[in-house]
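Reply to dn_fold:

You asked what the input looked like. This is it:
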Amino acid sequence: GGIPIMKGSEIRQMTTVDLLGRISQDEDNLSKMRFQVATSQLTNTAQIRLLKKDLARMKTVLNERKRTGEA
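and this is what came back:
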């Protein structure tokens, strides 16, 4: 259950606009999850770590595109 984990290859296939949208969506999800943990509604705290890793991967791809001038 929970949020599907994305592979680096999947992320690289996304457009920059899609990536930006997904990042803001996932950041919202992350804050909701943190709130659920604080109120003991979320028991699978590993999901937070996985979501943070996905966010980091997406931001890395965005930064690579900025550096190479693709964005």
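Helices lie at 8-13, 16-38, 46-68.
Hope that clears it up.
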